[in-house]
Design goal:
The structure holds two protein chains of two kinds. Chain A is built from 25 helices and twelve strands. The longest helix of chain B is centred in the first third of the chain and has 40 residues. Classes of the chains: A alpha/beta, B mainly alpha. Bound molecules: protoporphyrin IX containing FE and iron/sulfur cluster (SF4) (2 copies).
């Protein structure tokens, strides 16, 4: 029943050892998105080993113990999962997906399961089950919407997260994510898009020139300014793909005059660890912390990116000092605050199309930032509509959980994962869909293209850039322009 | 027969009730101890209490949740639970037994209310069973215990209703009463070891999930060491 265009055969090919010669050959296949560095045999044993090691050094056990005791199998969650709604395949019911891992836990890590296994000699982990998990956990976008409808409170997002972490320890993880992370942690550029610092500086100067042209204001991207209030970490891909968003953010800072800076030591908010490995999550979070401290910044500022925001907000305190950790804020919180204070003026006559706001799962699901962008948008967009449902119950764009970075599965994302979202967008009739998240933007752009919806996808600050009104004192006269150099 | 009934009412009741209470206490303590252990190791000790409490309370007053997913099933489930919990605890005949046994008592439900609640519990238990069997999603997920529980719970309610409201012969009455008591005791014994442990664990679901998301600090190194992967490339 899958409308997914990836056949079972193709999927099979996606899981092969990257180091074997026959695998090198297979790397020329069109669909192959997992890496697997070890011998494919013996996967169950290695899976259990990794599972045991992770349980030993984490807090998952308490949740797993709880979930295996309470799960009611009522299937209410099926009504909320956009993947199940699109495929109708019972294997996509959240509770079924979670049970894949919970059953391994029950059988191999609880007394009852081990006894039953001894007596009956059945139910142990097989290679097929490992394979099924590898498939299933990357069909889920970890949007955690199902958690809100589960009367037993089972957190499928947590289970998917853990399942992927274990799989990554035995070499099963999406190639796209691993390659980017490798560049970020071990590569020369130190960021996921492999942008060298000189190229970054060039790009920013170029953007500033553009903005001077358009707005007649010197809008800078301050680099390496020590002691700034905010040290800025956008999704680094924004420098390549979402320049308008960055321009909007720089424009806001220029209008308010608050100090912010981007560090040339490290300037990437992306943290794919959130999608496949806690170990990576920890290392990346620490890079953000180090750079902010190097620059003696007071706060970590994350750009328009859901997963980057959540991974910093939730995990910086965990890995970098508990209550002594640096505060983390999302750019929308800042912009909303300065607008409230009257330090940011927006022209209500610029945006006339019908605008809707998409809540990124990582920002809205737990009720973090929901009303602020809406207040801002309503203040300067004439025609604002809501997608329903929204806020904490918003539907995932279909590219969550890192799947958006896997170009090989685009048909799956836009035809299956994003189907419900597409229907929602169509129904709202919006012409501009605001999505303050690099992942959501990429997915939604592909979604409206593949589903042939007449709608433009933009960031919140893209629109703010269009509508911002600068103080006359900031305006540069034409002859000053020549000397209006950036630092 | 009388001796059997005596045995079921006396020692067997005390035993099964004790098993249930201790069993529930055990899962509750294990759960809370696990959460405490996790909290102690957590790198970040702040918990989003507002969120946890809000999300927990939503399910205690599931009014606005009912119509979102599987409304028919959810309504059945709620009405089923109401009778299931109220009738055994607040039935006049049960309270009398407690009073004669341990000397404590509390207000009882009026008999007509208790009767109607019993009937509704029976009806909704059947509805849940049928709903589960015919729902494509539920039946796909269900284990044996998910089918058996509604049926097992029917037994004491049906037999109880028969004994209280129908004029049956003395021996039939005795057999029915025996089934009533034994089935209830079977429920007591199984309850803490199956999914019905939810009756004590559910209020902690959100709390436990949030604690589990609070990872310990510096596990990269520890996991690497345990898995012998120190220094391995990403
Ligand atoms: C005091 C608290 C209790 C609460 C808060 C509670 C809550 C719940 C919830 C949320 C579900 C799952 C979802 C649903 O069906 O809507 C459920 C299912 C169930 N509960 Fe309870 N419950 C309680 C007590 C009990 C007790 C004491 C029993 C039995 C002795 C029981 C028997 C069942 C059964 C059999 C189901 C599964 C129904 C089905 O889907 O077939 N519950 N309960
Ligand atoms: S809603 Fe919760 S208990 Fe019900 S089937 Fe889904 S995960 Fe299981
Ligand atoms: S987290 Fe989202 S995609 Fe995954 S099972 Fe739940 S609702 Fe479906």
């Amino acid at each position: 029943m899958r409308t997914n265009q990836i056949s079972a055969e193709q999927r099979e090919k996606a899981f092969v050892s990257a180091r074997k010669p026959e695998v090198m050959e297979k790397q020329k296949l069109d669909v192959r998105y997992h890496v697997e560095d070890f011998d494919v045999n013996d996967r169950p044993r290695r899976f259990l080993e990794a599972f045991a090691a992770i349980l030993k050094h984490s807090n998952y056990r308490v949740a797993l113990d709880h979930f295996i005791r309470v799960s009611a199998k009522c299937s209410r969650c099926a009504t909320t999962c956009q993947v199940y709604q699109a495929t109708g395949d019972p294997k996509d019911i959240p509770c079924y997906r979670s049970e894949l891992l919970l059953s391994v836990y029950r059988r191999h890590f609880t007394m009852g399961g081990m006894l039953r296994g001894r007596v009956a000699g059945t139910g142990h982990l097989t290679d097929e089950k490992v394979q099924e998990m590898a498939d299933s956990f990357y069909d889920c976008t970890a949007c955690r919407r199902c958690n809100h409808e589960c009367p037993s409170g089972i957190d499928h997002g947590l289970i998917t997260h853990l399942g992927r972490y274990i799989l990554s320890e035995i070499g099963i993880a999406p190639r796209a994510l691993v390659v980017s992370t490798r560049e970020q942690l071990e590569g020369a550029s130190g960021n996921t898009s492999a942008i060298p610092v000189p190229a970054l500086i060039d790009t920013l100067e170029f953007l500033s020139e553009d903005m001077l042209e358009e707005k007649h204001v010197n809008i800078a991207f301050p680099l390496d300014v020590e002691g700034s209030e905010f040290v800025f970490f956008p999704a680094v891909s924004d420098f390549l793909m979402e320049a308008e968003t960055l321009m909007g953010i720089a424009a806001v800072f220029t209008a308010t005059g608050d100090s912010w800076t981007t560090g040339t030591g490290y300037f990437d908010g992306i943290n794919y660890g959130l999608f496949y490995s806690d170990r990576i999550l920890e290392r990346v979070v620490k890079k953000i912390d180090n750079e902010t401290r190097r620059l003696k910044g007071k706060k970590v500022l994350i750009g328009e990116c859901g997963h980057a925001s959540r991974s910093a907000k939730q995990f910086l305190p965990i890995y970098c000092g508990g209550d002594k950790a640096l505060p983390v804020i999302n750019i929308m919180e800042y912009t909303h605050k300065v607008w409230k204070e009257g330090r940011l003026k927006l022209d209500p006559n610029v945006i006339t199309e019908k605008v809707a706001y998409h809540d990124p799962c990582n920002i809205a699901r737990q009720g973090w930032i929901i009303d602020k962008p809406r207040e801002l948008l309503k203040a300067f967009c004439k025609d604002y509509v809501e997608l329903t449902p929204n806020g904490e119950d918003a539907v995932c764009c279909g590219g969550g959980g890192g799947t958006v970075s896997i170009d090989e599965i685009r048909p799956y994302r836009t035809m299956v994962g994003g189907k419900v979202k597409a229907d929602q967008i169509r129904e709202s009739g919006c012409k501009i869909l605001v999505a303050p998240c690099a992942n959501c933007k990429k997915q939604l752009k592909e979604l409206v293209e593949d589903q042939k919806i007449d709608c433009e996808v933009a960031g919140l600050h893209d629109l703010i850039y269009k509508a911002i009104i600068f103080d006359d004192s900031l305006k540069v006269s034409p002859d000053e322009k020549q000397t209006g150099e950036e630092e | 027969m009388d001796a059997w009934l005596e045995f079921a009412r006396g020692p067997l009741f005390r035993l099964s009730f004790g098993v249930m209470m201790l069993g529930l206490l055990r899962v509750l303590l294990l759960d809370l101890y696990g959460a405490w252990e996790a909290y102690r190791r957590a790198g970040d000790k702040t918990l989003p209490w507002g969120y946890i409490i809000r999300r927990t309370l939503v399910w205690f007053f599931p009014i606005n949740k009912v119509f979102k997913g599987r409304p028919f099933y959810s309504i059945c489930s709620i009405l089923f639970h109401i009778g299931l919990i109220l009738v055994p605890v607040l039935l006049f005949a049960h309270i009398q037994l407690w009073e004669s046994g341990v000397g404590i008592s509390w207000p009882a439900l009026p008999k007509p209310v208790a009767d109607w609640l019993t009937i509704s519990t029976i009806v909704f238990a059947l509805a849940l069973f049928i709903g589960r069997s015919f729902s494509r999603t539920s039946s796909f997920l269900s284990r044996k215990q998910d089918y058996l529980w509604p049926l097992l719970l029917l037994l004491p309610f049906v037999t109880g209703y028969v004994c209280a409201n129908m004029s049956v012969g003395a021996s039939t009455y005795q057999v029915t009463m025996l089934i009533h008591i034994l089935s209830a005791e079977l429920i007591f014994v199984l309850l803490p070891f199956t999914k019905i442990a939810h009756c004590i664990l559910l209020p902690f679901s959100q709390f436990v999930s949030c604690v589990a998301w609070r990872f310990p600090a510096d596990t990269d190194d520890a996991v690497c060491t345990t898995l012998n992967k120190k220094g391995a490339p990403v």
